[in-house]
Amino acid sequence: MNQSLTRLVRPWMWQLLLVLLVLALPAMPFMDRSRTSLAVLAGIYVMLGLSLNLIVGYAGLFQLGHAAFFGLGAYTAAILSIERNITILATIPIAALVAGGAAILISKPILHLRGDYLCIVTIAFGEIFRIGVTNNAFGITGGANGLFGAGRPELPLPWLEPVPALVLALVLALHVFLARKSGYLLRWGGAVVIAAGYYLPPLALDHKPLFLISIVMAVGVVVLGAVLRDHKVSARGQMLALVAVVIVCGLIMAAGADSLVTEIEGNLDKYFRVEDPVKVLGVELTPVVFKRDARPYYYLVLAFILVTVIGMRRLQYSRLGRAWLYVREDQLAAEAMGIDTTQVKLAAFAIGSAAAGVAGVLYASRFTVVAPESFNFLQSVIMFCIVVLGGSGSIPGILVGTLGMVVLPELLRDVGPTFLYKGINPVVILAVLLGGYLYGARHRLSGATVESGAIAGAFVLPPLLLGEPALSVIGMLMVLVAIIAIPLVRRRLDNALPWVAGAMALYAVVMLVIGKGLGPAVEREISAFRIMDWRDGLMGVAMVVMMVLRPAGIIPERRRGIVVSAVAEANASPQAT
Amino acid sequence: MALLELRNVSTYYGNIRTLKDISLQVEAGQIVTLIGANGAGKTTTLRTISGLLRPRTGEIIFDGTPIHLLPAHQIVYLGLTQAPEGRQIFPTLTVQENLNMGAYSLGNNRASIEANRSRVYDLFPRLAGRKRQLGGTLSGGEQQMLSIGRALMASPKLLMLDEPSLGLAPLLVKAIFETIQAINEQGVTVLLVEQNARAALRLADYGYVLETGTLALEGPASELLHAPRVRQAYLGEA
Amino acid sequence: METFLQQLINGLTIGGFYAVVALGYTMVYGVLKLINFAHGDMFMWGTLAGWGLLTTVLAGLTDMDLVAILVTAVLVMAFIGMMGMTIERVAYRPLRSAGRLSPIISALGAAFALQSVARNVSHARWRTYPQGLLKGLPTLRLTDEVAVSGLQILMLVICAAIMIGLYLFVQRTRVGTAMRAVSLDHNVSRLMGINVNRIISIVFFIGPALGGLAGLLIGIYYGSFNFTLGWVFGLKAFIAAILGGIGNIPGAVLGGFILGISETMVVAYGPDIGLANASAWKDAIAYVLLIAILIARPTGILGETVAEKV
Known about the structure:
The structure holds 3 protein chains of 3 kinds. Chain A folds into 3 domains: 33-151 and 294-413, no CATH class; 155-290, no CATH class; 417-529, no CATH class. In chain A, 71% of the residues lie in helices and 3% in strands. Chain A has helices at 2-8, 11-24, 33-58, 66-83, 92-107, 115-134, 163-178, 184-205, 211-230, 235-255, 257-271, 294-316, 319-329, 331-336, 341-367, 377-391, 395-411, 425-440, 445-466, 471-492, 497-527, 535-549, 562-571; strands spanning 147-148, 154-156, 272-274, 278-280, 283-285, 287-290, 369-370. Chain B contains 10 helices and 10 strands. Chain B is globular. Classes of the chains: A mainly alpha, B alpha/beta, C mainly alpha.
C-alpha cells in the first residue's frame, strides 16, 4: 500500500504543486494588498539571494557589499527613466551592464585577497557606494532623499499583433531548443501542437484577448516540459502531458469564451493603464502601464525569478560552474588543474552583480523611489543571511532564507502584544518548544517524554486554574530555562527526573500562589511591549541560534562528489575538549 | 603493569574507520616503536592517545588513569607528551618561548622549568646558542631538536615521537636516534612512530607493525627485525 | 603650521581610541581567525554602561570626578569583559569547526542583538554624559594658538598605557605567550597542555574589556552618544586593525593612528585642496584607505605574507 503510494507520487508532482501554489498565491483569501506587496518585495529578495548565491554559494567568495550592486541597478534605472524617459524595463540590459561592469572594475584588484580581507573590502565598497549616493555624487543621485518618479513597467498589449506571433515564435524556439534530445515526435510534433493550440481557439472564436490565455498556456507547456525532462519522464509521457494541456486550454477557451474575455478586459482596467499606440522600430504597439496594485508585479517578478533560476542551474552544471566548485573547495588544486582562478572568480562577481542590478531595476519600477538607505549595510547582511541561513549554494535554501529574513520580520508587524497568550497560541508555542526538546533528546525519548509531561503540566495548570492566560508568558520563559538547564543538570546527576519533577511542582505551586496578582502585572508589561522595537534584536538572536543548530544552513546544498563530502567530514572530525 | 595501554581502540574520521581495534602496551622504561607504511594509521594512533581525536570505542589507560575521555591538554598534565609529525614548532615564537610553552603544564614552577631547560640545552647544545632566534628560522634538524626538546619540557613519563627522522639528512637521523636513546636512559619511556623501520627497530625494545588501521604483527624489536614479513615489507629485502 | 599641530593632536587622540578598539579585533582574529562583528557593539555598550553608572548610581560622586570614573571604569570593564566571554561561549564556540560562513552570520547576529537591546535601553535617544567631567584638568599651551586640553593628554596617556601594557602582557607573560601559541595552532597548543578554550575565553575577556574602557573614555571625551555609535566606529577600528596587519598588536596601534590622523587631516584640509564638503565624506576615508593599502600590501602594513590554506 505504502509502496504503491510512493510510486504514484513522483517528485515532479511536488514541484508542480509548489509551482501552482506560488502561481495562485495572490488569489488566496489572506493575501490582502499589503501582503501581496510583501510577496513582491520577497520576490525581489529571492532574485538578490539567487544572484549572491552565485558569488558566495557557488564560488565561495565573501561578498558583504552586494547591496551596492543592487543599488547601482536601481539608480541606473531611475536616472535613465527620469532623465532620459526610457521605459524602465528597457533599462534592464544597461543596468545589468553597469552593475556587472562596476563589479569587474572593483573586484579585479581585490580578488587575490584572502577570505576575510575580501569580506571587509566588499563592506568598504558597499559603504563607499552608500556614502557616495547620500552625498549626491556627480549631482545625479538626489542625495539623502534619493530619486522620485521612476517609471512603472510598460508592456505591449499582448493580444494585438504582432505580439502574439512574436511570443509564439519565441516559445517555439525555446521548445525546440529544450527538446533537442527528445526525438522528432516531441520536438517537431509538439511544436505543431503548441502552435495549433495557440492560434486556433482565439481565431476560431474571434476573441483576441484569448491570446493572453494562449500565451500562458504556451509558456506553461514549455516549463512543464523542462520539469518533466528534469525528472526523466519518458518522451511519450511528455507528449501526452503536452497534448493534454493544449486540449484542456482549448476546451476552457471554447467553453467560456465570452465570460473569459469580460474577465480579462475588466482586469486590464483594474491593474493597467492602456496608453496610445506608439511606433517601435516601425511596429505599432499599444503600451499598457502597471498601476500601483502589487499583483501584476508579483507575476513580473516571478517571471524574472524563473528565468534566473533556470539560468543559475544551467550555469551551475556548466564548465564555469564546475570551475567555481573547484575554486571553492580547493583553490590551489584548481590552479594546479589549469583553472584561471582570477577569471573564474571575476566571472562569478560579474554575473552575480549583473543579476543584482536587474533586481535593482525591478525594485525601482515597483517603488518608483530610490533612496540610499535601501542599499545600506543592513541590506547586504540580509542578502548574505538569505544565502547562508537557507544553506549556501542551495536554491530552495534561498526561498527559506527569504521567508526567514524578509517575510517573517514583516509579518511580526501584525503580531499584537497579546499574541503570546491569545487563544490556543500558548499551547502551540509550548508544543513547538517541547517538540524541539524531544527532537534534541531523541536518543532517550522515554525519559525526555516524562520530563516534557512534567514541564507541560507546570506550564498549563496555573493559567488554566487561575484564569490568567497572561501567566503562560512566564511559563514560556520557564520552559526555555528548563529545556536549556535539564541537559546541563543531567551531566552531573545520574537520575535527574525527580529533580525536574520537583522543580516543576515547585514552579506550579509558586505560580498558583502568586499568580492572581502576577497575571495582570504581566499583562500590563506586555501591552507596553512593542515588538517592532526589538525586531532587529530578535533577528540577531535567530541568526545565532540558527547557525549554532544548523551550521550548514536549513536546506544545505547537496554536495556533489563523494570526495568532497569525505574531506568536509574529515575537517569536521571530532576534536577533544 | 604497563605505563600505557590501548584496549580495542577504534577511531573514525567521519564515518571512515581509520583505526580498527588497536590494542597495544608500552612498558615503563622501554622504547616501543610503531612502524608501518604511509596511511597505516600511525599518526592517527598518536593523535588518539594524546586526545586530539576521540576513540569511538575502546579504552586508553595511562599510568593507571583512563585518558580516552580527557581533553588533550589535561593528558599533558599526567605526564604524556608528544613531538608531533612535521615538528610543528611555533614559527614566530623564539626558541626559548617554544620551550616555555612546552613547560606550560608546570605552571609557575620556575625551578623545574629551569632544570628542564638546562637538560634540553645539554641534550641539544645547538639550541642553546639560538635561544632568541625565531623558531621558523631554524634548520630542519634544529626544528626537530626543538620539537623534541619542547616535548621534554613538561617532565613527561612517556614521550611520543612522530617520525623524528622525516626529511632529515642521514647523519642528523643518527644523531637524533642517539639522543632518543639518551633520553630513554634518563628514565623517560618512549613511544616512537617511524617509517624508517630498520633504525627504529634497532633502537627499540619492543615493536608493533600497523597495516591499514590494524595491528599486523608485534614482538620484541630484535625478533621483528628478523621476521620475514617485516624484512620483506619494511626493510626492503627480498 | 599652528592648526596643523592642533589637528595632529586631535588626530592622535581619535587614533588612540581607534587603536584600543582595534586591539580587541586583532586579538580575537589572532586566536580564532574570526571577524568579531559584535566587538563594535560591545564598545558601544561600554559607553552606554558608563553613562548608566555615571548618571544614576554614581551620580552623587561627581564631586570626586576621578574616584567616580575609576569605579565606573572597573565596573564597565568587568561587565563588558563578561559580555565578551558569554558571546564567545554562546555564539562562537559551537561553530569552531563549522567552516567560515556560519561564524560570520553568528557574529553579525550577536551584533544585532546587542544593538537592539541598547536601542531599547536608551530609548533610541541621544544620551549625554554628566557635564564637566574632568574639566578641572589643566590645559597645556604649546604656543599661543595651539593648546592641548588636559582631557586629551589624559586620553592619550591612558591609550598609550593600555597598548604598552597589553604588548608587554602578550610578549612577556606565560598566558600571553600561550595566546600567541594558540593563534598559531590550536592542536599543537593542546599538546603543550594549554587549555585552548580557557585562553580564548581570556582573550574574549581582555579584548572587550579594553573596548568597553575605550567606550567609556569616548563617552567622556565627546559627551554624547547614541546606540549606533558602535557599528560605524567598530567597523573603522576593524579597518585600522587590517591596515596595520591583523593579528599583531603594533599593527593595530599603527593602523589606529594612521586612520585617526588621516580623518582629521582630510576634514581639516579637504576644502583647501578642492574637496568642498570633505566632512560629509569623512566616513569614506577609512574605506578608501583600506582599499588602497590592501591593493598595495594584501596583508596590511606590518602583516606577514602567509600562503592561504583554503
